[in-house]
Amino acid sequence: MAEGRGAQGYGGESLLFLTDEQLRQGIEAMFFAYRGFTADPDRILAEMAYGRAHHRAVHFISRAPGTTVNNLLAILGVTKQSLNRVLRTLIQDGLVESRVGKADKRERHLFLTEEGVALERILSDAQRERMRAAFREAGPEAVSGFRQVLEAMMDTDLRRKYKKLKEAGS
Amino acid sequence: MAEGRGAQGYGGESLLFLTDEQLRQGIEAMFFAYRGFTADPDRILAEMAYGRAHHRAVHFISRAPGTTVNNLLAILGVTKQSLNRVLRTLIQDGLVESRVGKADKRERHLFLTEEGVALERILSDAQRERMRAAFREAGPEAVSGFRQVLEAMMDTDLRRKYKKLKEAGS
DNA sequence: TTGGAATGTCAACAACACTGACGTAAGCTG
DNA sequence: CAGCTTACGTCAGTGTTGTTGACATTCCAA
């Protein structure tokens, strides 16, 4: 991409990238890219009886094993009833294990079973492959910018949660 | 972000940005950022009887006035039954006008009415404001990288459509 | 110990996607 | 012109994922 690195003469204070047209292109880029982002896992999930919500749950349980339902709720941003339906099927199907909390028996701590780990791997392999290809094509500096913009686009509380996960996974 | 611009010593051929952990962070960044991306319009739409699907339709009709149903279908990537449900309510409510094609009378060309333009403006103002803030915070180079990565993440046919829109809106 | 808060479950409903089938009007082709 | 295809609309049925409302259990603090 030749126009990548400020070759057009903005000296650092130019606001060309903030025109309505540029912003609209950014919006459409998000829309189309997100479709690509979810396409591969969606294809896989469609063959099973699962959907995108199952993927999200499995992903974050994998990322933070032993997390409570409440914590997962905050990260996913759905109602507990909605999450519960998903968790119920995952537990019934033996992909997720729910253990009653020791300190607080109201809490349920969530873990992936072996089978759950296997599904997570299949899904995230597919999604990572897409991300890897995009990263490789765009290059390290673009990746850095990509993440900066995305981070700035998050709601502040989600941004906090995102950074927390980032540190945890260092 | 101190680590923003390749300060960590990768010389251009380092693949640190392709580690599984980096990819996973990219995936989570997409997830959280998309939530922020849709949050403001969703709030507005919730107060009316409309949803995200209506927003998408209105956006792309605004972007390409006179577009046909078939074209919109290809861009949105949904079935005609699904689009039709949305379009029907928008037409009934007087936000969208559907005109029979002159050259080909089978086609319906879609336009926003004044009222439709007004709604589109409210929604896109909210969304653009979020995008503007993110762009400003991240800076022009980051924005360039952001768009490069997103473009690389799209399916090839969507990428074509995205570029077409981009050129049209020059 | 009792009342409120936190945690999680069950039931019913709405939005929005899907498939499949069908109908109509218009264009195209042999 | 006859027959096939295209573009669009619609009806019916289904699945996923979100919502609210009601309720049980557990913890904690007044």
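Residues 51-53, 78-79, 81-82, 85-86, 104-107 of chain B lie near DNA strand C (CB under 10 Å from a C1').
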